[in-house]
């Protein structure tokens, strides 16, 4: 699933870019776009709290994996209209899935967990790059993606 998500996201991102600059399409800032930004930023903040709790031994792996899976579902629930937000939604969703898998398998298979964590960070970085490139256009429409960066 992750490899397919990466290929899909890369292909979509490549097709959406116009000559390496800002995307060659119009941005939107609908109510669902703003709702997605809010929901995704809440879950991204929560991920940092879960990670801290896991490292401190306050949360166990199964609980963190379950929270990451729930976050992936929540991020996928709101349907943004803006193409950059749609792409970042797919990437963030896949990032939560990979993070949850990394934590879940980490208690038994450190090497495999590392691969999943590496994918999660890669997906997060790609989502950030999409949002950084879209930020000026989204800001002109009234959407602030700063909480997701």
Identify the overall geometry.
elongated
User: What is the mean predicted local confidence, pLDDT?
Assistant: 86
Low-confidence stretches: 3-9, 14-23
How many discrete domains? 1
- Percentage of helical residues? over 70%
By secondary-structure content and strand pairing, the structural class works out as mainly alpha
CA-based gyration radius: 16 Å
Descriptive report:
With 149 residues, this protein is mainly alpha-helical. It has one domain. Helix 4 runs antiparallel to helix 5. The longest helix has 32 residues. It is elongated and about 45 Å long.
Protein traits:
149 residues, single chain, 5 helices, mainly alpha
Task: Describe the structure concisely.
This protein is mainly alpha-helical and 149 residues long. It has 5 helices and no strands.
């Amino acid at each position: 699933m992750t490899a397919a998500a990466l290929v899909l996201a890369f292909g979509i991102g490549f097709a959406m870019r116009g000559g390496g600059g800002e995307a060659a399409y119009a941005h939107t800032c609908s109510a669902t776009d703003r709702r997605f930004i809010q929901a995704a930023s809440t879950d991204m903040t929560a991920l940092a709290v879960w990670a801290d709790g896991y490292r401190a031994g306050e949360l166990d792996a199964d609980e963190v994996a379950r929270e990451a899976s729930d976050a992936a579902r929540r991020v996928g629930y709101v349907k943004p209209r803006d193409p950059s937000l749609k792409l970042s939604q797919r990437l963030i969703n896949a990032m939560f899935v990979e993070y949850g898998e990394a934590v879940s398998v980490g208690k038994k298979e450190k090497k495999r967990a590392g691969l999943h964590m590496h994918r999660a960070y890669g997906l997060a970085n790609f989502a950030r790059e999409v949002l950084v490139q879209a930020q000026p256009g989204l800001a002109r429409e009234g959407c602030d993606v700063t909480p997701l960066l």
